[in-house]
Specification:
By secondary structure, chain A is mainly beta. Chain A is about 0% helix and about 45% strand. Chain A has strands at about 5, 10-15, 20-25, 30-35, 45-50, 55, 65, 75-80, 85-95, 100-105, 105-110. Chain A is globular, with a radius of gyration of 13 Å. Chain B has strands at about 5, 10-15, 20-25, 30-40, 45-50, 55-60, 60-65, 70-75, 85-95, 95-100, 105-109. Chain B contains no helices and eleven strands. In chain B, strand 6 (about 55-60) and strand 7 (about 60-65) form a beta hairpin. The chains are: A mainly beta, B mainly beta.
Chain lengths: ~110, ~110
């Protein structure tokens, strides 16, 4: 089934640990995004990539890094997790010419 | 000022009524505008996109864009309880989409 797959779906992580959230899409979209959504709030952009090999910083990039080695994969890494990174993380992709984004099912991350 | 602002709600309408959701944005060079619906505990899903001034209709949904006023709205006609969700407005500029905080809609039977 075409779409975006995120893993894991949920995780409890000790503060200070390193964690990589995985995101894979099979729609051959050029652009991919990582958002975080905190309770009762909208989506805030962490990092994005308009094409394989390039990445950019969004609204809240501190404490996160990304890579885009190929079209399909866009992992998000927390180098040293802190409790304020407790959130729901959504990966999305879009055909950059249109801009309509399609979202993965989300990863619920709790940092304790 | 936030880049994309929505009425925080919550908005409650009776079944069969018209629900009106509003959004304003600050960046005048914005070219693409989207409405997403998000059910509780789920991921956002696209319901409407609009790129030029005027109205765009899709079934019970109508998106309205006024670039001069930097305003985009979503009308839901004949609202159903299944429309109860949070509606997110998004504006795309320079390859990045910025989202509002969303408006929670409740449609009461």
């Amino acid at each position: 089934i075409a779409g975006i797959t995120q893993a894991p779906t949920s995780q409890i992580l000790a503060a200070g640990r390193r964690m990589t959230l995985r995101c894979t899409q099979d729609m051959r979209h050029n652009a991919m995004y990582w958002y975080r959504q905190d309770l009762g709030l909208g989506l805030r952009l962490i990092h994005y990539s308009n094409t394989a090999g390039t990445t950019g910083k969004g609204e809240v990039p501190d404490g996160y890094s990304v890579s885009r080695a190929n079209t399909d994969d866009f992992p998000l890494t927390l180098a040293s997790a802190v409790p304020s990174q407790t959130s729901v993380y959504f990966c999305a992709s879009s055909d950059s010419s249109r801009g309509e984004a399609f979202f993965g099912q989300g990863t619920r991350l709790t940092v304790v | 000022q936030k880049e994309v602002e929505q009425n925080s709600g919550p908005l409650s309408v009776p079944e069969g009524a018209i629900a009106s959701l509003n959004c304003t944005y600050s960046d005048r060079v914005s070219q693409s505008f989207f409405w997403y619906r998000q059910y509780s505990g789920k991921s956002p899903e696209l319901i409407m996109s609009i790129y030029s001034n005027g109205d765009k209709e899709d079934g019970r949904f109508t998106a309205q864009l006024n670039k001069a006023s930097q305003y985009v709205s979503l009308l839901i006609r004949d609202s159903q309880p299944s429309d109860s969700a949070t509606y997110l407005c998004a504006v795309k500029v320079a390859g990045k989409s910025t989202f509002g905080d969303g408006t929670t809609l409740t449609v009461k039977p």
